[in-house]
Amino acid sequence: DGVVASEKAKSSNLDVKISQSELETEEKETEEKPTRESDSNILDGSSDYPRDKHISIQRHLTDLEKLADLREDKKKPCPLCPEEKFKACCGHKLRRHLQNLHWKVSVEFRGYRMCICHLPCRPVKPNLVGDQMLLKMGAHYHCIICSATIARRTDMIGHINRHVNKGETESRFITVRAPTSKVVKESATEVQVLPNHSTPHKTDSYFNPRMKLNRQLIFCALAVLAEERKPIECLDAFGATGIMGLQWAKHLRSSVKVTINDCNEKSVTIIKENCHLNKMKVKLNIKEGENDGTLGDGEENTDTIEVTKMDANVIMHLRSFDFIHLDPFGTSVNYLDSAFRNVRNLGIVSLTSTDVSSLYAKAQHVALRHYGCNIVRTEYYRELAARIVIAAVTRAAARCNKGIEVLLAVALEHFVLVVVRVLRGPSTADNSAKKIQYLIHCQWCEERIFQKEGNMVEESPYQQLPCDCHGSMPGRTAVLLGPLWSGSLFNTGFLRRMLLAAVQHGLDEAQPLLKILVCEAECTTLKHFSTHSPGDENKQEDCGIYIKTSNTSAETYLVPGKRKGEEVMRSAAKRQRAEHSAEHPAFYYNMHRHSIRGMNMPKLNKFLNYLSEAGYRVSRTHFDPMGVRTNAPLAQFKTVLMKYSTPTYTMGQAEGPIHLPGDDHRAEEAPAAADTKEEDAECPGDGKSGGTAAVPTESRPAHCAAD
Q1: What residues does each domain of the chain span?
Q2: Angstrom distance (rounded) from CA 393 to CA 577
Q3: What is the distance between the alpha carbons of residues 402 and 392, in angstroms, rounded to a whole number?
């Protein structure tokens, strides 16, 4: 026993000595090679480093020289060049060759050098033989991340940068740590995004914080539809991070059945992780029919979100939905036919178009190619863009024997949002198609009018314009724009309920815009709204604006029987169409565009009151902060603007409205006896009430002459 104990003690001492010696050697290695610390930041572990990397990828020039086995007494070939291209030579020549022709033109990435390679690594066409094959075997680089071979150095640098931006850093050569994702919170919903989430071409989890207002408007529209019938099936066709569908499911809960779709596998993975982050149950439905019913950390939440990996056109062809939202990168015209094919009756289709360069007439040839519409840059270009998109939506719905009712159209700096209700039947499709007309636009004064319907071809359709530019100006003064949607852009009752939904869910950014939209839909200048609780239905009237919250909520639509349910839906649609009064005037005028040189314009709110006192309907518009939507013709608009403008110079002229040219014509009809008192007559507009006497232009001061 004593011998055994002594042997155990010796073995333990030996283990301690070995471990201490190992620690000492490790410390020495770390002191001698400080670069290993930087290598550990790049590599996850030394054991994970594979040995099958290409010989052109080295860390130091000495490593490249070791491949050549340089010796002074023997001639060695270049390890990166074929024998036909570079013959074997002595050590000093080969060292200079490796340094100048391979190492200096290398591409660096995380401490590694991708040297240029002349070996026959790239595939060659089979019909090339002999010298032609040697010519095709040009210099190239081997990617350190993937197995690609790229000829040019600049292309290789761009190739590596794209890998880094996409987070594709794991490879068979080196294992680089992927960029850490961060959590973004919006409307009580958390989503994980990559660091390059704001660049759509370089990331799979595109997330734009500036589109928060767009997401809130779409949520309000869905909340209004959820009050009409429950439950509704809604689709987010382009999920990306899935934040929109998560907001729907988290706030509306059992009222909606959310489906988030994306064709990118990495986006589907991110959507699934975000669902678990928000404690949502995930039902993963890919083409093969795989299901994943795992819950997140919170088992108490039974809400389920279905995540699909399909093309947007495919899923909309296969299934029917009550609410569909399209938000692709760019135009959405490629998905309209699929969206209207299976959408249910009285359902809603919303689409966001971000191709503002074509819609805002910066790329007119693209608008002609995508929308089949001829446009020019006008003062009302944003409303023109909204009507272009609605016209494309109307044509797509009519091809499926369906009509539309426009509920909302918003055009801001970065996007154009259109929300329409689907009405089945060929008659409604015909009525909607009749509202697609051409617009006659004057290029001199920017007056506009929709072309009148008729079977006869007019000799000069530009005479329909209220202005006289076609007669007084030489050449062609007007252009034909379109085809465009000529109907209303808003549904007042639907907007009121959207405003109430925004108040109930605390969407602060959407409320000011919805108030402007209600005023614009009714063409009124009222700005004050009542936002009481739902129990105060009888107290929600303020300044003529009434937010309707009927007690007959979604439960009234749950009528047993298919026929009765359809009748209730049809009556609800008729009531919604009757909620709004007369349609708002088409288009708007910009005050700065029609301002008078040398005159100070009145304030916008005062000018709206002046137009309203003149007997015209008038309101502000969200399309343009200085825009005025009115049914007054342009001539009357300019007349009122001139009347209440003041000169920028004083020179003895009093404040107040100036006299119009029509006043001078009426004054010239005065008796000729006034000419005898020409020297005593006073100039018009000098501050006296009777200053309208006829005075010849020659005898007036320069500042009193009529315009």
Answers
A1: 57-123+137-165, 182-285+303-452+468-492, 589-647
A2: 19
A3: 13
Q: Give the contacts of 181 (CB within 8 A, at least 6 positions apart).
A: 192, 193, 194, 195, 205
Task: Say if residues 238 and 312 touch (Cβ distance below 8 Å).
Answer: yes
Query: Angle 562-579/492-504 helices, nearest 10 degrees?
Result: 100
CATH 3.30.300.30 fits 589-647, yes or no: no
Rounded CA separation 301/250 (Å): 10
User: Which DSSP string corresponds to 622-687?
Assistant: SS-TTEEEESS-HHHHHHHHHHT-EES--TTPPSSPPPPHHHHHHHHTS-GGGGGGTTT---TTSS
What's the pLDDT tens digit per position in 438-467?
A: 999 999 999 999 998 876 667 777 888 988
Q: Report the alpha-carbon distance of residue 544 to residue 55 in Å, rounded.
A: 80
Q: Please, what's the b/e burial string for 233-265 (b: 16 or more CB within 10 A of its CB; e: otherwise)?
A: bbbbbbbbbbbbbbbbbbbbeebbbbbbbbbbe
Q: Do 182-285+303-452+468-492 and 589-647 fold alike per CATH? A: no
Mean predicted confidence (pLDDT) in 261-266: 92
Among the listed residues 425, 401, 414, 409, the one whose alpha carbon sits nearest the alpha carbon of residue 484: 409
Q: Are 517 and 493 in contact (CB under 8 A)?
A: no
Burial class from Cβ neighbours inside 10 Å (0-12, 13-18, 19+) for residue 90 reads: middle
Residues 6+ apart with CB under 8 A from 106: 113, 114, 115, 116
Query: Strand, coil or helix: what is 20?
Result: helix
Identify the bridge partners of residue 561 per DSSP, sorted by sequence position: none
Number of H helices, E strands in the chain: 22, 25
- Report the range of poorest mean pLDDT among 195-209, 220-234, 543-557: 543-557
C-beta separation of 365 from 373 below 8 A: no
> What is the pTM (predicted TM-score) of this model?
0.66
Contacts of 1 (CB under 8 A, 6+ apart): none
What are the start-end ranges of the H helices in 400-477? 426-433, 469-472
Q: Which residues of 590-604 are buried (b: 16+ CB within 10 A; e: fewer)?
A: bbeebbeeebebbee
Helix (H, G, I), strand (E, B) or coil at 284: strand
CATH class of residue range 182-285+303-452+468-492 = alpha beta
In whole angstroms, give the CA distance from residue 53 to residue 147: 10
Report CA dihedral (675, 679, 685, 689) to the nearest 10 degrees: -80
Quick: pLDDT tens for 497-534.
999 999 999 999 999 999 999 999 999 886 544 444 34
